[in-house]
Amino acid sequence: MNLVLKIIKLFPPEAAHSIALYSLKILYQLRLINIFFPKLHDEELEVFGMTFANRLGTAAGLDKNGDFIDCIGALGFGFVEVGTVTPKAQLGNKKPRVFRILKEKAIINRLGFNNKGVDYLVKRLKKRTFRGIVGVNIGANKTSDGQKRIDDYIECFNKVENYADYITVNISSPNTPGLRDLHSSDNLKKLIGAIDKVIKISGYKKSIFLKISPDENKESINEIIQIINNSFFTGLIISNTSIDKKILKDKKYHTYEGGLSGKPIMNKSTELLNLIYSNDPSIPLIGVGGVMNNKDFQDKINSGAQLVQLYTGFVVKGPKIVADILKE
Question: How many C-beta atoms surround the C-beta of residue 193 within 10 A?
Answer without folding.
Answer: 13
